Structure formats: structure tokens, C-alpha cells
Amino acid sequence: MFFDWSAIPGALPILWQGMIVTLQITLVGVVVGVLLGTLLALFRLSPSRLLSWFSATYVTVFRSIPLVMVLFWFHLVLIPLVVGLLFPGRRLELRFITALTAFSLFEASYYAEIIRAGILSVTKGQFSAGLALGMNRRQVMRLVILPQALRRMVPLLLTQAIILFQDSTLVYVINLDDFFRKAYNVGNTVGTLNELILFAGAVYLVICTLASGCVRQLHRKLTVLTVK
Amino acid sequence: MALHTLLLTSFDAFTALSQANHFSLLASHFSPNAALIAGFDFSVFLRPSPESALNNLSYLLVGLGWSLLLALASWVVAFVIGSVIGVMRTLPGRILPFIGACYVELFRNIPLLVQLFIWFFVIPDMTPLLGDWFKQKVPPIWQEFIAGTACLGLFTAARIAEQVRAGIGSLGAGQVGAGLALGLKRRQVYLLVLLPVAYRILIPTLTSEFLNLIKNTAVASTIGYVELAQRSASMAETTSRVYEAFAAGTLLYAILNLLVMALARGLERFTALPGFLGGRR
Amino acid sequence: MISIRNVSKWYGEFQALKKCSTEVDKGEVVVICGPSGSGKSTLIKCVNGLESFHEGEIWVDGISVADRKTDLPKLRSRVGMVFQHFELFPHLSILDNITLAQCRVLGRSRKQAVEKAVQLLEMVGLAEQRPKFPAQLSGGQQQRVAIARALAMDPIAMLFDEPTSALDPEMINEVLDVMVNLAQSGMTMLVVTHEMGFAKRVADRVIFMDRGEVVEDQPKQTFFENPETDRARQFLSKILTH
User: Fold this and answer.
1) 10 Å Cβ neighbour count for B189?
2) Is residue A123 very low, low, confident or very high in pLDDT (cuts 50, 70, 90)?
3) pLDDT band at residue B80 under the 50/70/90 scheme
4) Region B42-46 average pLDDT
């Protein structure tokens, strides 16, 4: 059982390129996901039946199908659509945009639920108190509810971001080169596939363990400040 | 492998039934034009799939079957190991909870896909006897199945462990104290007092975990396991009817979701304690 | 029967019990009272080993609680405990709550256990509730079942940790009545409680604890009429004006 790690140092630049792709997907997925998710959460909580129904359907649909299938769907549907509009563009670019879009829209449904739960966890009493002071709905939301809700949500949002970071590996199914795919390719080419897979696993393990440790610390700090 | 043949035979029997009279008869009532609703061609489901001897709809249904099979096998592994680790984390002392914590951290911080590849590529290479048998003697589909079960089982076990830990924790130290005060040994307290109540509380969370597991089976497509998501995609490619293919795939996952949730609700009602957690008074 | 000698316990820097000592003879009823945080619950939980302690000794019927070789489950099966929050097992019926430990720990047959359970339920006045589940009973009823559950083990002594503190006022008496009957039947009892009426009725001795120390340890009469320490005097004056 001998391991040959020699391929790794030389491959670091390539792997780093892949990591950049991974980080980009994660970042865009989180930012757009949170923005869109907030919108969806507010829709769901709004008095408008149409908006509420739309949000509920969106969330239910995206949460009942695998991410893999969402990626396939965007890959096989988005490309024909876009290609139909523009001239055949560079394939790689399209895959990247596919990934960004798919992840953003998919994660939005998960973020929507976290945000909605966070908003609901702030008691009705707070809402009434705000209204009683003469604020309108939007003001109460912005000045009273959301600040409290955010405190509770932030650890969960960050945890979801870590999950997204891990899920980004699934771009494998649309042949996009993220960190893991690069590692796999290098391993295949050089012949030390096992070593590269283990290396990639170790990298993810270290990053995610550190990240979730930080989130736990943050959670502890935030919990002290919330009123029970 | 007798099981292999049995499964394939039952799947083929099912599809033969669906193919035979029912659907074809239905289709023959409609002209090809009627089957085109708003530009969608639903008759595509009845046309033979180039991938196998079945029609497209059955092709997808068989995929659903394989997804479900993987999910169930993984669930058994996950539930057993997850319960053990979850209990370990609630025991007094330092060693066992620490081991449990390490397990959970390890399996939660490596992406599922990477874990799958480790099980499928790395571990068979690394284990001397079993690994060679795995690579040479086991048919590909079962290789993928075993790797998938091991991967999803242990991955999900980490999540179940956390839930079991929380469930037991929510019962409070009082129940443990009461059990111990009667002279029960710790093992008895867990088996007779804590777990029966904890599992009841956990039915909703465990259900959602199982639904997650079903979705995660799609990842197995990366090592060639032909489950539903992969089949939706390949049907979309071969028939060029992307919307229909994915609509069907989505619908099948959704239906499976609803079935599982209905079963869970039934289980909750069946195990409900009078007056407790919403059971009958 | 129960011998507590110089018991001390620390939670990190904080000392919860400071050299506590007392004796409970067979048939005696001893009440422990005091403000919250005085360590009374901690002390009583040390007696059956649910809490550990760092210094001192506790002997129950000649067996040392802290000794590594002591079979704690066996000891616990001989000493009954009743908790502030009843702690009935919610997934078992009333009857099964009482028979569980009888069968699993004492090895009694199901028939014997059920007989005993029914007898005890009649004694506490809840015989018709046997098929019900804890969540269907009121607090006072649950606590009476808890007492029956502990008694089913034929204990040599009973420990009560604030048995009525979590009850609505109108249910306190039904539980105290059961405890009074138990005391009058000659059971050795160590009771942590705020119910001074109960103490006055059946206690032999009263112990007052404050900040982890046993401050007073007197026969009932002496405690109520002529407490030695100021702290005890203050406590009594505050409690008894209600």
C-alpha cells in the first residue's frame, strides 16, 4: 500500500485554478441565493396570495429534486436556449454560467426556508409592539424584525454556505472543471488517481472543519445576545 | 447473483405489464395530434427507449426503482450506525463522545462526491483481498451499488447521529436520573426509557433526512449507477424532448416525496402516545 | 440507615457542598429546607449516587456510596427517589411505569409486578388510571404514581427532591397526604421541601441548609420554636408569614 504523492506539488497551479472556480461558484451561489431567498421568504410571508403561492411552489419544487438533476436540466435546457439566441459560444463559458445559475436558483430555495424560519422565530409580540408605536409594516420589518431575525439566521446561512461549497463538486456531472474535477483529471493523467482523490478530500476536510468551527464560535457569541 | 436476477426479472415483469395492454391501448385512442398538448409530446413516453428494451416511461420508472433501492439499503446502514454514534455522543465520559464527534466531523466535512469516489476508486485499491474481489468478481452495477450504499450510509449516519443526539438531549437529564434511581443500568435506561421516546420525537426529522437521502442517490450517477436523474437526462438527450423528460423526472421525485411523507405521518400516528406530542387524549 | 459524613463537592471553583454531615435512623423522617442554591438537591442526589462528591463519605445501610466496588444500580434499587418533575416515562402506561423496574431490576414475574403495582395504585388512590399514559394525568396524579413507582421496589428508604415544588397549589395536598401516610407507616424518609406544614406534622428532625452548609440540624420542636442560628431564624420568619 504505497502512496505516490509526487504529482501533487507540480499540479498545484492547475488545482488552484480549479479552486478559483469552486470559490466563484460558492460565492455567487451564496450571494444570489441569499438575495433571492430573502425575496422568496418575504413573498411567502406577504398577504398577497399570488406571491405566497409562487414562493411556496418554487421552494417545494427545488427542494424535492436532486441538485444533480437541476444541473442536468440547466445544462440540457439552458444551452439550447442560449445557443438559440446567440451564436454558438465557447462551451466552457456556458458551463460555468450554467453552474452559477443552477446553484443560485437551487440554493435560493434553501435560503428562503432558513430566512422564513428566522423571521417567524421573532415573536408576534415584537411585531405588534412595532405597529403600536405607529410604524407601518415595512418599517417594522426593516427596523425590528429583520435585525433580530438575522442574528438567529447568520449561523444557519453560513452553514448552508459550507454545504454549498461541498455541493459545488457536483459540477462534475456537467463536465465543469472545479477543484475536485481538476484533481481527478490530474490523477487520471499522471496515474495516481487515488492520491489525488485523497488529497482533494483532505483539502475539503480541512477547509470545512475550520469553517464550521468558526461558525460554531460565531453562533455561541450571537446566542448570548439574543433575548429568549 | 440470484438477487440480481430476481430484481431484474421483477422489474422486467412490471414493465412488461405496463407495456402490454394498458398504455398502448390508451394511446391508440388518441391520434398523434391529440397527444401533443401545447407543444408537448407526451406520447414520447410510450415510444421505445434506445437505452433498453422498454418504453421511455418504464425506463424512468425502473430508474426510480434503482434510486429507491439504493436509498433503502443506505438508510439501513445509516440508521444503525447513526443511532450508535448518536448514543455514543450522549454517554458520560470523554473517549466515546470524542470518537463520535470525530466521526461526525469527518463525514460531514468531505463532499459527498469525493466520499463516493473514495469508496469506488480508492478503497478497493487499498484493501488487499476484498478490494481485488470487488474489482474483478463483482458485476459493475453491484460495484456501484455497494460503493453507493457504503458512501451514502456512512454520510447520512453522521447526520442521523446529530439528530439522535439532539433528540436524546431534549429529553433532559431528569429521565436519565429517574431511570437510574430505580436501579436500571445505563444500558437499560437508554433502551427502555430514552430511545423509545427520542425516536418518536425524531420521526419528522428522520423523514426529512430520508428524503434527502433519496435525492443524494442521484450522485451515484457519477460512477455509472443508472438511477432516475441520470435516466431523465439521457432520455432528454436521446428523444430530444427535454421538457417532457425532465417534467417526468421531477414529477416522479415529487410523487415519491409525497408517498414517503404520507408514510411518515402514518407512522407518527401509529406510534403516538396518548396525550403526548399531539397523540389522542 | 443513612449516614452522611463531611461531604464536600465542587463545581470547578464553586463549592456546592461544604462538609455536610447528618444521620438518618431507620424510621426517621428528616426534612431538609433552605433557600434555592443552598445545595439541598445536590446533597440528596449524592445519597443514591446520582451526583458524585469529592470529599467525605456516605453510607446507606452499611454500604459506602462512593466506593468504586459498590454496585450502584443495586443500591439504587433499594433506595427510592421521587423527583421534582415527576419524571414518569411518557411512552409507558401508568401500570408499565411501575412494573418496568420491578421486572427488569428485581426480576419479578410480570404477574407479581402487576399485583404489586395495583396494590400501590390503590394505596395512592389511582387504581382506575392504570391503563392511562402519564401525559393524560394531572401533575398531582403523576407525582402520586411516581411515589408508587418508587415504593414498588420495596425500598429501605425514600428520598424526595422537592416533590411538590412543580405542582399547582390545589394538587399539593393530595401528594402530601400520601407522604404523610408513608411517614406514619414507618418509612425512613429524607425530604427536601419548602412545605413547612408537612415538616411540622410528620418530621422527626429538620435540617436547614444555606450556601452549601448544614446550618441547623434539630429535632422538629426545637427547630420551629427555638432555632439556634440567625440565618435559620430569618428563613423561618420569611417562610412562615405566608
Assistant:
1) 20
2) low
3) very high
4) 65
Q: Which residues of B161-185 are buried (b: 16+ CB within 10 A; e: fewer)?
A: bbbbbbbbeebeeebbbbbbbbbbb
- Which residue on chain C is closest to B190 by alpha carbon? C89
* Nearest-neighbour CA in chain A from B228: distance (Å): 9
pLDDT value at residue B17 = 44
**Cell matching residue C236:** 423561618
Q: Residue written as cell 452499611?
A: C62
Distance from CA of C134 to the nearest CA of B (A): 8
pTM above 0.95, yes or no: no
CB contact under 8 A, B122 and A194: yes
* Structure confidence at residue B95 (pLDDT): 92
pLDDT in tens, B154-187: 999 999 999 999 999 888 788 999 999 999 998 8
Question: Would you state the pLDDT for residue B20?
Answer: 39
User: What residues of C are in contact with residue B273 (Cβ under 8 Å)?
Assistant: 90-91, 133, 135
Q: Does C149 touch chain B (CB under 8 A)?
A: yes
Q: If contacts are CB pairs under 8 Å, which of residues 74-103 in chain C contact chain B?
A: 74-81, 83, 85, 87-91, 100-101
Q: Which residue of B has its CA nearest to A57?
A: B254
Query: Does the beta carbon of C52 lie under 8 angstroms from any beta carbon of chain B?
Result: no
Grid cell in block for residue A15: 488545482
- What pLDDT shows up at residue C5? 92
Cβ contacts from B onto C, under 8 A: 82
Q: Do A66 and B236 touch (CB under 8 A)?
A: no
| In the block, residue with C-alpha cell 445545595 | C39
Q: What DSSP assignment string belongs to C68-130?
A: TTS-HHHHHHHEEEE-TT----TTS-HHHHHHHHHHHTT---HHHHHHHHHHHHHHTT-GGGT
- Which residue type is seen at A93? E
Check B253 against A64: CB less than 8 A apart: yes
DSSP B222: G
Mean pLDDT of C58-80: 89
The beta-carbon neighbor of A212 closest among B109, B118, B254 is B109
The C-alpha atoms of residue A32 and residue A38 are separated, in whole angstroms, by 10
pLDDT at B75 > cutoff 80:
yes
Radius of gyration (Cα) for chain A, nearest Å?
A: 21
Model confidence at A224, pLDDT cuts 50, 70, 90, reads: low
Are the beta carbons of B276 and C83 separated by less than 8 Å? no
Contacts 24+ apart (CB under 8 A), B142-148: B142/B1, B142/B4, B144/B120, B144/B220, B144/B223, B144/B224, B144/B225, B145/B69, B145/B70, B145/B73, B145/B225, B147/B116, B147/B119, B147/B120, B147/B223, B148/B70, B148/B74, B148/B116, B148/B119, B148/B217, B148/B220, B148/B223, B148/B225
Residues 6+ apart with CB under 8 A from A29: A100, A103, A104, A107, A164, A168
- C-A interface (Cβ pairs under 8 Å ≥ 3): no
Tell me the shortest Cα–Cα distance from B176 to chain C, in angstroms.
Answer: 9
Query: What pLDDT is stored for residue A30 in this prediction?
Result: 95
Instruction: Spell out a b/e string for B86-101, using b for 16 or more CB atoms within 10 Å of the CB, else e.
Output: bbbbbeeeeeebeebe
- Please name the chains neighbouring C, where neighbouring means 3+ C-beta pairs under 8 angstroms: B
pLDDT per residue as tens digits for the range B230-281? 888 888 888 777 788 888 888 899 899 999 999 999 998 888 887 665 443 3
With a cut of 60, say whether residue C68 has pLDDT above it: yes
Chain B residues touching residue C154 (CB < 8 angstroms):
none
pLDDT exceeds 80 at position B47: no
Chain B residue with CA closest to A211: the answer is B109
pLDDT at B271: 87
Instruction: Provide the pLDDT confidence category of residue B43 given band limits of 50, 70 and 90.
Output: low
